[in-house]
Amino acid sequence: MVGNSFDVTNLGLRHLLLFASFQLTICCRIFVPAQWTRDCCRIVTPTSTLVGALRVMEADREWMYEGRIVNGMFSNKWGDKVDEFVAFALRHPECVNGGTAIRCPCTLVKCQNKKFLNVETVKVHLYKNGFVPDYYVWIYHGEKEVHQRCSRSVRVSVSETDQMVSDNMNHTTYHRMVCDAAGPEFNPYEEPNAEARNFYDMIRAGDKPVYEGNSKHTQLSAAVRMLEIKCRHRCSQAWFDDMSNFIQELLPPDNLMPLDFYSTKKLVRGLGLPIQVIHCCVNNCMIYWGDDSDLNSCKKCGHARYKQTVRGSGNRLYIRKLKVPYKKMHYFPITPRLQRLYASTATANEMRWHSEHHMEDGKMCHPSDAPAWKHFDGCFPDFSSEVRNVRLGLFADGFQPFGQSGQQYSLWPVVVTPYNLPPDLCMKEEFMFLTVLVPGLTNPKGKIDVFLQPLIAELKSLWGVGVQTYDISKRKNFQMRAALMWTINDFPAYSMMSGWSTAGMLACPHCMEDSDAFRLIKSGKQSWFDNHRKFLPINHPYRRNTKDFIKNRKVTKQFPGVRSGDEILQDLNKRGLRKVMDVDAEVVNAAISKTCGWNKRSIFWDLPYWCEHLLRHNLDVMHIEKNVFDNIFSTVFNIPGKTKDTYKSRDELNKYCRRPQFAQNLVTSKYPDVPFF
């Protein structure tokens, strides 16, 4: 403890990257920020020092920002100073990665003391871009930090300095004078809240080496490594205990290696990333959660919750007392993982990127540049005023974990990612948080809402109340809130999430009931050909074209516009659609779906802000691009079995379009080739 501040400097989180693959009870991944492996969570308080000495330090390092280019040429003197800086960094092994790589302090967004590069590349970056502003104290290169960051306060006025302190929380010379006058008890920052403090304590306690002289593994990293091996190779708990005992025999007596599986789980549990195992109905009717957690059978289909395994034979039959559920899902709460993003110096600043960056040349490079994001900010100014509140995206898709040749099993992971981060981070796997694992054996289809109940409940809590979170970049506690902005899915999963059927004549979620789809006369297939002219301006010449589209047809109809969230919600309430969790949902929704495109009331409408979104569900571009490309490519190159230019399609072509050059030759009964090239 220094003054009233809790010091967690130099915690040494080098091995926390191993936790990215940690799986405690199932073979899945729980993602945490990868850059935790290179940063320490610091909470440093001001201590008494001489203002004059700090001014001398600033003056001595003015070369970092002056004299780099002289008369259009790089200065040799400045280059010598850079060599001294690199030599200084290399003299501190704790700041060197791989023997030759140090943090690059240039002004590039990807660098700025975040990225390790070899020393020659660092020199090139510094020559080209210069040093990051106000880096007078080389805290990322081995120099011990007394105050936070020294700034060039000798060049600003007292009023400007006060503004810098209040807005940026940077210590200036004027601020340090106040600290000196008030003494070591003065601390403008806050201590971590109890949860964050416990986390830092656990990390520091687990950072001790397994035994004296071991530099490869700490107690925590060894425990996580053992769990990762157990999950990857699907080993039993008995194997884990036996292997732990054997390792104890190989290590010195005073080692800190966990003794068994229980002690290993107890150590790792302190990371604060819990897993909830929730029992489910075998028919996906319900989950035994919340008010239904004590039920022993499904309230909809009546199926038993637990298996009843009979043991013995003859007259000595008995039922096993151990309760084994027929089916269970796994839920990974997102709140602690969002809090970890603010607990690490590697990601805390990046979580404000969405509000600090500026749109360049009117080009959208991030969702925060989009109208949907700005519309949401306008609807909820109290939420958007705190830039550290988290915006989330959700996506889900199914896959077969055993491959096509193995057991048929459809597993559906639901993943959440924070959009506060810059584009190069928010799409990395470290920041894609596995939240729900929907079990098989079959596709849950419209009943996926049953498994999303814990997530929606947590999102409602994060919106209405929030959670106290410690922001290490500002050394402050704040009430973090979160909002789900949209979902991203392929077309079949779009139906599962939104409740709008993507099969049949009303499959288009944009047109909805205003669809102009029709069925082909001979094949009976659905066709959306020539459905797009209604989106054109009313005086567009294509609207009057009767030759190149459906023959003898002019289009005067106009698209009425996309429905707002309030209009859709009113329509759902008017029709009386039920959520799939309701007891009578299956019967009621089946009857209503015959007269419209809706097949359920989506659970996302339970979110109080969902109807205010301009954009609620997105289509996965990858699937659309692949399918469109495959169809065009196969048709142009006339690939057998994949081309859309078939005898049946040619037979119906001239019934709808005026294409006499592609008509069947009555003599040869063949169709002419299409001149694509």
Description of the molecule:
This protein has 677 residues and is an alpha+beta fold. The chain contains 21 helices and 19 strands. It has helices at residues 51-60, 76-90, 119-129, 158-168, 173-182, 194-205, 219-232, 237-250, 261-269, 335-343, 353-356, 371-379, 381-384, 423-426, 448-451, 453-464, 491-498, 565-575, 585-592, 621-636, 647-656; strands spanning 69-70, 73-74, 101-103, 116-118, 276-280, 306-307, 310-311, 318-319, 324-325, 327-331, 390-396, 412-418, 433-438, 467-471, 476-480, 482-489, 518-519, 526-527, 617-619. Strands 5-10-13-12-11-16-19 form a seven-stranded mixed β-sheet. Strand 1 and strand 2 (73-74) form a beta hairpin. Helix 2 (76-90) packs antiparallel against helix 3 (119-129) and helix 7 (219-232) crosses helix 9 (261-269). It is globular, with a radius of gyration of 31 Å. Mean pLDDT is 79; it is low at 1-59 and 145-187.
Descriptors:
19 strands, 30% helix, 677 residues, disordered N terminus, two-stranded antiparallel ribbon, alpha+beta, seven-stranded mixed beta sheet
Summarize the structure.
By secondary structure, this protein is α+β, with helices and mostly antiparallel strands. The protein is built from 21 helices and 19 strands.
Averaging pLDDT over every residue, what do you get?
A: 79
Order of strands across the widest beta sheet?
5-10-13-12-11-16-19
How far is the N terminus from the C terminus? 77 Å
Main sheet attributes: strand count, strand direction, barrel closure: 7 strands, mixed
Rg over CA atoms, rounded to whole Å, is 31 Å
Overall number of strands = 19
